[in-house]
């Protein structure tokens, strides 16, 4: 493959549906993609963020001004469980990438440049724009759809052309994103002697699966709409995890119905991110879209026992606390910045749900105790 240095100069244009336009340097794939424009405040971990299935359907803006400075690690490397070792899925999930500055990679483990990786996977990017201005715009007016176009620098599309292309594309909430990122068929990751935990895969990160496996659980990874079986290959299913994923949780009616099924509901259960929202919906609660979401690695979570932690988060929807009356669920944690609900639990100690990511990757792993608490219950109930 020819190096990016040998390619003609590319221009990049980000056009928002409210008419706001940004022009800069294009990189990555020479193409045009529509997506919901969001931002993350994370300073590290761009390989993990770009491959996080929760970002499916979105154009991701990085507020940290320098990106690409440690290149891209091996995308083929696998850990002892056969999971991707350095990324969260088998490919880039975002529709486009927006950065202030694109830098040369300097890291011993880098196998390729960020822009080469994006070219290989058909993902466009724009650099050299005022990402602070873009972020302030999204914070003021909320996330909006946008179109990111990369092509010859001397020929940039007009506002009218971009607005027409954007108008023909479906809205973020209208897209069926979960089927694009869910596993196609049940997949077993086995640990000798470990209790079998089912994971409803709405776009689960590899690090969530790994967090269960390194703690000694076997994992049955199921498609998002699959029935949770009582047994699999002769082994009893002992617990359930509902992981992260993209899109509006209220549209996942089949998954919500499965979580209401008595045998599924009877399992010790852990919900993470989208899973937190789906569990609330399955118990009669409601969700709403946040103005600009929580995306980054520095989000404060305060638990009802006085404990406060910093967590990694990536979500654009939240649970309405008042909707939980009579649901059997109680608030477990809140975000002190905006008061949003960060955690749920039940009175019996058999269900926990966290809006943030206890596995981190990227980000802190202070909430890892949630996995420990869940698996303690799973083992306690196993005969």
Counted beta strands: 20
Instruction: Give the terminus-to-terminus CA distance.
Output: 57 Å
Please tally the helical runs, counting DSSP H or I stretches of 4 or more residues. 10
Mean pLDDT across all amino acids: 95
Which regions are unreliable across 5 or more consecutive residues at pLDDT < 50?
1-5
* Biggest beta-sheet profile: 11 strands, mixed
Could you tell me the strand content as a percent range? 25-35%
Radius of gyration: 21 Å
Structural class: alpha/beta
Count of the domains: 2
Which tags fit this structure?
Glucose Oxidase, domain 1, eleven-stranded mixed β-sheet, 10 helices, about 20% helix, 20 strands, alpha/beta, Rossmann fold, single chain, 2 domains, about 375 residues
Your description of this structure?
- The chain is an alpha/beta fold and 383 residues long.
- It folds into two domains: 166 residues, Glucose Oxidase, domain 1 (3-Layer(bba) Sandwich), CATH 3.50.30; 204 residues, Rossmann fold, CATH 3.40.50.
- The chain has ten helices and 20 strands.
- The strands form three sheets. Strands 10, 11, 12, 13, 14, 15, 16, 17, 18, 19 and 20 form an eleven-stranded mixed beta sheet that branches. It has a seven-stranded mixed β-barrel with strand order 1-2-8-6-4-3-9. Strands 5-7 form a two-stranded parallel sheet.
- Helix 7 crosses helix 9.
- It is globular, with a radius of gyration of 21 Å.
- The N terminus is likely disordered.
């Amino acid at each position: 493959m020819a190096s990016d240095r040998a390619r003609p100069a590319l221009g990049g244009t980000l056009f928002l549906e409210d008419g706001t336009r940004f022009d800069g340097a294009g990189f990555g794939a020479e193409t045009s993609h529509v997506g919901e424009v969001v931002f993350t405040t994370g300073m590290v971990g761009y390989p993990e963020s770009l491959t996080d299935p929760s970002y499916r359907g979105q154009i991701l803006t990085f507020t940290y001004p320098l990106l690409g400075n440690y290149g891209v690690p091996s995308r083929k490397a696998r850990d002892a469980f056969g999971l991707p070792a350095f990324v969260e899925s088998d490919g880039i999930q975002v529709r486009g990438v927006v950065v202030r500055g694109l830098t040369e990679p300097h890291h011993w483990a880098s196998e390729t440049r960020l822009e080469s990786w994006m070219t290989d996977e058909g993902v466009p990017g724009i650099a050299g724009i005022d990402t602070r201005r873009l972020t302030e715009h999204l914070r003021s007016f909320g996330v909006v759809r946008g179109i990111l176009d990369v092509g010859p620098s001397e020929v940039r599309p007009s506002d009218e052309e971009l607005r027409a292309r954007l108008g023909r594309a479906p809205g973020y909430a209208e897209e069926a994103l979960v089927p694009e990122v869910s596993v196609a068929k049940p997949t077993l990751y086995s640990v000798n002697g470990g209790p079998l935990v089912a994971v409803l895969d709405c776009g689960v990160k590899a690090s969530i699966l790994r967090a269960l496996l390194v703690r000694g659980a076997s994992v049955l990874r199921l498609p998002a709409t699959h029935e949770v079986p009582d047994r699999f290959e002769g082994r009893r299913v002992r617990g359930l995890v509902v992981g992260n994923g993209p899109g509006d949780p209220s549209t996942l009616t089949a998954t919500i119905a499965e979580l209401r099924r008595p045998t599924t509901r009877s399992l010790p259960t852990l919900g993470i991110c989208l899973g937190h929202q789906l569990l609330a919906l399955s118990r009669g609660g409601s969700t709403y879209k946040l103005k600009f979401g929580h995306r980054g690695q520095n989000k404060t979570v305060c638990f009802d026992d006085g404990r406060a932690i910093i967590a990694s988060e990536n979500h654009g929807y939240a649970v309405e606390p008042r909707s939980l009356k009579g649901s059997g669920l109680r608030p477990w944690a809140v975000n002190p910045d905006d008061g949003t609900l960060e955690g749920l639990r039940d009175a019996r100690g058999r269900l926990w749900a966290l809006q943030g990511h206890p596995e981190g990757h990227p980000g802190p792993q202070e909430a890892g105790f949630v996995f420990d608490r869940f698996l303690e219950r799973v083992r306690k109930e196993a005969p």
